[in-house]
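Memo to structure team: turn this sequence into structure tokens by end of day. - J.P.
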Amino acid sequence: MFFLTTILLFGFASAQKVIQLTYCSIDEHHLRMDCKYAISAESPEVFCKYTQGERLLDTTDPDEEQHAPFKKRAKARIFPGNNCRLLFKNLPNGKSNFTCNIKQPDSATASKTSVVDKKLLLPCSAWSVLLQSCSGLLLTLMTLPMLLEIHWL
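Reply from structure team:
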């Protein structure tokens, strides 16, 4: 039983996973989406792809072909620090679903989906990325002074 538990835990610990999916606007009509992921150290090769439903926006896998309408609109690249970035031109009005898929050879695909509403999209800056990625920390920092004020009354 101990042996089976060890194998299962090792299997889950060594798999890749998408940690965070953040997005912002480069200008009024273009989207930048960053997909942070964790991978096992066993394989240095990792592929990233962004999809909308069954449509492939772009991928870093040379064996997959990009959906034709997105060839000039979408570009996916992997950056140091386990970050896959999508640049998407001419984001349509309204809400759009984007899915980041991370794949290592001989492993299951990890994915995360986010709904992007163009009218609520923040411009890209360090502050907007911080707001999206550290909302719990921000809430704590905003609430702490208020709690201290109540205590001093």
